[in-house]
Structures are given as structure tokens and as C-alpha cells.
Here is the input.
Amino acid sequence: MERRKFLKTTGLASLSVPFLFKNNTYAAVTEKLFRIEKSLEDRVLVLIRLNGGNDGLHTLIPLDYYANLNKQRSNIILPENKLISITPKNAFHPVMKGMADLFQEGKLGIVQNVGYPEQNRSHFRSMDIWTSGSTDIATTTGWLGRNLEIQHPGFPEAYPDEKHPDPFAISMGYEVSATCQGLVANFSHTVNNPATYFSATTASAVNDGTYYGGHMEFLSTMIAQTNKYGKRIYDLSKDVKNLSTKYDPKNELATQLKYVAQMIQSGLKTNIYIVNINGFDNHDSQVETNDVTTGKHADLLKSLSDAIAAFMDDIQLMGLDKRVAGMTFSEFGRQIASNASFGTDHGDAAPLFLFGSCLSQPIYGSNPVISDQIIDQAGIPMAIDFRDVYASILKDWFQVPAEDIQKMFSHQIKYHSLMGACTTSLSEDPFAINKTVVYPNPATNHMNLRINTFRENVRISVISMEGKELMVSHEATFEEQQHTLQIDIQTLPIGNYVLSIQKQSGNESITFQKVKEN
Here is the structure.
């Protein structure tokens, strides 16, 4: 019997070892050889899973619909004078100072109303959809696992090897992330603490040609691989020290991210890390009745905000902020109206948060529309498909070719400009020359924009971090060629901004910084 068939017909996914397997039916994709720049190979994506379904309307409050929101959830509504305003139309929960500060620094982004068509409100099914990146119940591979399959179709056999000594992904805790599930095995390796090393018992298994013998040999090989990964992580990370003093030792999420920062700093070539925070399913007692700014949800949001702020501080002190980006995700949002138990029930869409120094724009999408009428069980409608967010990150951050990305998803992808602000080079390499580039960045009084266009109408403007258009530098019909444009930013105050490029062939956004002239 083939090993893949063995894995489909046995219950290895339930074994309490540092790796898990799952049934897979995803069709193999031919590996493509393509060149990528060294800095792209070193890029890291950190996923934060908010387990339980986060209440987006209690996290990011739409101030333009505050009066209607008060009618919908009068027993849990946060007082407007206690909110942390980040734009004229948006405010964070009062405990989210860390994320609010990052937003003002241009290091936190918001994608509004993210979900999928015909939202399933079951925790288990919806999380399967989010981790697989597919609404097809037959899909058993993860969205990141499918990308890794394209690059490493023979996994797990022959790994680790000399070229790939490190895990491709790391799941913090004791369970691998379904986002990294591949055809045969999960691409992620579990880590609880990188400074501790546990070696699983191994025994040489002789393949006597039987069903049992062949697959005991395979299992023995997998355990040996897990031990190699574990020792590699321990050897590189054991002496690494964090530079930030902002980590709260009582904050479990902060501790996970502290370990992630250590592993990135250690020189480990792992590109994906997954961390978790539990407890967002607050059907009751979401707030304290005597003070709605406190309660279970407030505690979770403070943990999330403080942990991301500490991690970003650490990464920047390590000089790694241009290499590391992150994203939160949760299986669904909550219903618009609160319930009588001072909580909220399963809903539909919700905001998704990005963090890093390479974000394209501060807020992507419009605020949700809140009616002044309570509609039973109504949720926030989806405006942006989460699968398109995944695809856009693969394209922007990891520079995965569009034709490969489309094969990973069953729907027609619509790309969004989310993490494209950091350019990697100004070399004459043909893989770099066609990129849209702003330089110098940071800039003082002038900067240059290098852009390729078709014959099309193009509008280039500068947007504040609050989403307000400040100036239009160019608006004209461009010819089909590469253009180098000078942009005058003398009148802008020192700070962070977004250069918005609107064109028929696809909109782009690039974050830039105006600094004081020496």
C-alpha cells in the first residue's frame, strides 16, 4: 500500500507527537522553477489566530454609525468618550493603546468587512474554511500548505536536507496549524519553547514488505525528522535574547510572540509562524455590567494589542521590521445586535488586522453600514473575500507568481494592495525592474516614483494615515512604457503617508516617510 493511502486510512492525525497528518485530496501541482530575490526568501509571515469569533464592532468602532450601534447593542456599547480615535470615522477599544500607536506609526493596517459568501456560523466548519482557504468541504489541504507543496512537492521525504535544514513553518504550542497542511503531512513543526529540546523516542523499523512494516518505517522516519528540526531550533535559539522590554510575562500571546522573535533573530530560515489566543466566543458576560470597558473581551483585546506592540518593538530593535509582517484571523465576526446576556452571538464578516513596516495603506475598505433597526441575527455582510486577502499576501509579500496562486484557490481571485510597500532592490534584474518603486524612502522634499503603465488614465495622490487625501501629484493619460516621476512633498509635515496610484490595470499603494532635511 502507498504511504499516502496509508495516511488516508489510519488515524495518525490524533497521535500526540509533534507532527500531525490529515486526509488529503488536493491534486498535485507541477513544481515551477522561478527566481526570487534573496530578501524575499528571508521574509516572514506571522499569523495570529483569534479562536472563537472576534467581535469586530467591539474592537474597531465605526464612529459614523455610533448612534445606530448604540441602538443595536445598548447593553454593551462602549462610551464614545472612552474610545481611542484613530481616524475621524474609526476608533479602537479603550484597552488597545498598543495597536492604536502602531496604526499612527503606519505599522498596523485594517482590512474591513472580511469574510466569505454564505457564511457558515459553526466554529468548526468555519475555521476549516479559513484555514483551508476553500469553501469546498472536500478540501483538506491548507492554503499555505498548497503553496509549500508547489515549492517542495516531495515533502516530507528527504527533509530536512542540506539546503533546507529548518522547518518551513512553525506552530506555537502542541498542535500543528491546519493552514500548513500538505498532501501527505503538515509543513509546520510544533514548538512550545525554543530554548527547550525534547527528543522523541526512535527505533529503527525494518520494512519487511508488509503493510505494518512499510508504514512503521515511515513513521520512524517522521519522528527522526521531527527530532532534527527540534534540535536545530534549540541550537540556534538557546542563547538568543529579546531586545524589547515590553513583553508581559503574564500575557500568553506575548510569550508566544517573544519566542517567535527569538527564532527569527536566531537565523532560522522558517518563513511562517502561527500563534493562537483563545476565548473570543463571548455569548455572555462579554463586558462587566458595571463598566462595559472591562470584561472578558477587553482582557483579550488588551492581550492582543500589547503582544503585537511588544513584538513589533522587538522586531524593530532587532532591525528585522522590513522582513517580518503579520495578520490576525478569526472564524467569523459577531452579530450586529447584542443579546440579553451582555454578549454577542455568531455573525459574519469582521475586520482583519495586518502589522509590519511594509503595509500598503492604513485602512482598506469602508466602514460597515449599521442600521437603526434591529434585524434578528443580522451580521456584517462580507465586502472582501478572505481568500483574496490570502492571495494578495502571497503575491505581495512572498512574490508567488499569479498563475500559481490561482491554482491554489477555486474562485476567481481579486487582488488587493495590502503588503506591497517595501521594495527589495533597484537593480537591473528583470525580476526587479518592472516593480513600482518609490525612492528615496524616507524622503525630505522630493521623491521619485518609477512605474510601468499601459496606455491608461492614471491618478497619483498622497493619503494621510487617517485616510484623507492631501494632494494629487499627477492625473493624466499615460503612454504604455516605464515612467520615472518626481513628486514634490515639500509642503507635507514630517510623518508617514501613503502614495495612492489609481490606474485601470490595477491600483497600488506604497507607504513612505517624510523626514527632516539634514
Remarks:
- The two ends are 71 Å apart (CA to CA).
- Confidence is low (pLDDT under 50) at residues 1-38, 424-432.
